[in-house]
Amino acid sequence: xxxxxxxxxxxxxxxxxxxxxxxxxxxxxxxxxxxxxxxxxxxxxxxxxxxxxxxxxxxxxxxxxxxxxxxxxxxxxxxx
Length: 80
Description:
By secondary structure, the protein is an alpha+beta fold. The protein contains two helices and four strands, in the order E-H-E-E-H-E. The termini are close together.
């Protein structure tokens, strides 16, 4: 299953937050398909495409993302 996730990162520490997000994905068994970062007015917008075999791992990843300081407005679109 593929899923597209979008979220905002605080601009002051974007690389540190992004490193935490990618490490969480790796430890959670998700595979990175694509990553894009766009500058917005006050935050950096991230589009992340991941592949996962078990949908429960994706749910767990989202819960963990919500606990990372600096990640805002998380939204998921599932692409089969």
